Amino acid sequence: MIILDYETRSKVDLPASGLHVYASDFSTDIICLFMYDTDDDTSCGFLMPKCMPMVWRMKLKAATLVGAMNAAFDREIHDLIGVPDYSFPEIPDYKWYCIAAQCRVNALPSNLDDAARAAKVPNKKSQRGKQLIKLLSIPQEDGTFMESLDLRKEMLEYCKSDVIATVDLWRATRSMTQVEHNDWLINERMNTRGVKIDRDLALAATKYAAAEQSEIGAKLTALTDGLITKPTQYQRIKEYILGSMEDDENDRKLLKLMTTHKNDHKKLSLDRDIRESIITSIDADNLHLFEDVEDLIRLLHDASASSVAKFGKMLTMADPEDDRVRGAFIHAGAAQTHRFSSKGLQLHNMKRNCYDSEEAIAMKEVMMRNEPVPDVMQSLSKLLRPALVPDKGNKYVVGDWSAIEARALPWLSGDVRAERKLNMFRRGIDVYIEAAKDLGLGERQVGKVAELALGYGGAVGAFASMAKNYGVIKPDYEVKKIVVSWRNANPWAATFWHSLESAAKKAVRARGTKSFKAGKVVYTFAPNLLGGTLICVLPDGTGIQYPFCSIEHSDRGDNLVCLKAGIKPKAGDTSKHHWGVVRLWGGLLSENVTQAFCAALLRDKLRDCDWLDLPVVAHVHDEIILETAEIYAYRDKKLLKEVMESVPEYAQGLPLKADPIILDRYGNH
DNA sequence: TGCGGCGGCGCC
DNA sequence: AAAGGGCGCCGCCGCA
């Protein structure tokens, strides 16, 4: 493998516009390139526009794989600048290999600095590197680039040290399997297709949002004598409300409503749920606040739809040539479970509550005519999904699996007692009604909340937070009963939690000499990988990892712990654990295997789509979105249903259900 | 002025 | 003993 790293400069703001717009821009150019041959440990770096030495030209041509940290960046720079402008040898897409993706499948962080720290790979402080980027890669105030041979030479040194650290990381972690690498390539192809946005709609929406935001700002300013000027100034808002308090009964009630608990300490919050409960109390005449405080909270409620900022992101990220946003998906972005994640224009958290195609078009026309829109912010947020559109002559075909996690969890338990639940899915029986019956209650909503909240070891707290989303209100003592009843009706669940934790611990203790089964997954241990890595092998043969995994003894028993990619230590942290630690208890393990298995299933189906030339442009964990020619839409809808409902050999008995639909714009379904 | 932390939003 | 977790982006705020 040749591992390389490009340093570049451009007038385009990379984080704002995304890689594709960046690499396509005429102002973008290469500053330097450093390459390392892992076969013979030779390396070569040079400044542009010097020619690439012939021997390295040959090496690059002959390489089996070309690796880079975030290879998508280097690939686009190579293809769009290196090859056409500097006659670098072409590298076919399938040869590119992403070492950041390799880090993630090893459950390490995705960026070089953090991954190196977590994996204990030597890596020099990158502070100077960041300075150099600022100096050389970003235009100066007058719009021109700084030209300095000395700084360029220094940049090359920095580039070299990054490549060395990347090589070390590549060696310290396991490589992606061929299946994983192929899945990464499939994801790259989808990223290249991109997803089209309705530019006119997004433009109109940003215009209306800006006007509304300034109006809300003016109202806030007037209401609070200029202390608060924007609805997002939460700190000032909290101060304002606290400042208005006189410690009477109402204030104590308000404080109680605002108090949340996070990591064992109290915090005051005014998030949406809390605002809602405050407003409910006021409307029920249980809470009386000063008029300005009440107005403030209500105003905040109307104003808060920060999600409309996505329209702006659509505009800066879409390619001006074809209005498509590219590169929005990260293979195994979730390092714990290998689920995909989404970046740039985050397509994994688009507000569900939205207009359908006709309503969206009507709203768009209203905005184009500059007519007023009621409930501006809320209305705009309902336009987010419909702002994604198929190209002319195309349709979206969208399929999502019905209750995939609720099916996968009991199936993974491998417990005969879970067959009852699986049979309900197989026969199309409403599991939420059945769950409500099990609880001795008639309310489907309560059954639904229990089903959604209690599968992963959660108890009263889990139920309560889920219940809020569905308007279910139950006193604590009743929730406790619900939890007990649900667990009694689903005995396979607690057994599975316990056996997962037990098998995982046994695997760690066995130090790799033996594997241990829990339901349909198997735990094993790799003592020499990343400080000792617990590996969970899923039914499809793929695995998720728990690096730096060990058993810590305490007076209350043994705790299984491992490194958690998402928790960064502060700089200079020399505590016992060099990185954030997570405790692996049964509930967490059951959730991990379920999410991971569902992600594996999705990847499997994306392979089928790739094979069948079904053009996937996006997906959201349990949902696949095709953009297909209108004349093929009906055929592809049937094909997608077949793909999503066909049960793989390794998943016999798992009931899969999906009913794709054809859409003119993206939406809720 | 830039950057990281944090609170907040939203999804599965 | 008890335990909801997996993500990413925006904006404010305090610090360097």
What can you tell me about this protein's structure?
It is built from 25 helices and 22 strands. The chain is α+β, with helices and mostly antiparallel strands. The strands form 7 sheets. It has a 5-stranded mixed beta sheet with strand order 3-2-1-4-5, with helices on both faces. The protein has a 4-stranded antiparallel beta sheet with strand order 20-21-12-22. Helix 5 (112-119) packs across helix 7 (149-172), helix 6 packs across helix 7 (149-172) and helix 22 packs across helix 23. The mean pLDDT is 89. The structure holds a DNA duplex (12 and 16 nucleotides).
Q: What's the short version?
A:
Helix content is 48%, strand content 15%.
Essential attributes:
single chain; 669 residues; alpha+beta; five-stranded mixed beta sheet; 25 helices; DNA-binding
Furnish the topology, listing elements before pairings.
Blueprint: E1 2-9, H1 14-24, E2 29-37, E3 42-47, H2 54-62, E4 66-68, H3 71-86, E5 96-98, H4 99-105, H5 112-119, H6 127-137, H7 149-172, H8 178-193, E6 195-196, H9 199-223, H10 234-243, H11 249-258, E7 259-262, E8 265-268, H12 272-283, H13 291-303, H14 309-317, E9 324-325, E10 329-330, E11 341-342, H15 357-368, H16 376-381, E12 394-400, H17 404-413, H18 419-427, H19 431-438, H20 444-453, H21 460-469, H22 476-489, H23 491-509, E13 516-518, E14 521-526, E15 533-537, E16 543-546, E17 550-554, E18 557-563, E19 581-583, H24 586-611, E20 616-619, E21 623-629, H25 633-645, E22 661-663
Parallel strand pairs: 1-4, 4-5
Antiparallel strand pairs: 1-2, 2-3, 6-9, 7-8, 10-11, 12-21, 12-22, 13-14, 14-15, 15-16, 17-18, 18-19, 20-21
The structure holds a DNA duplex (12 and 16 nucleotides).
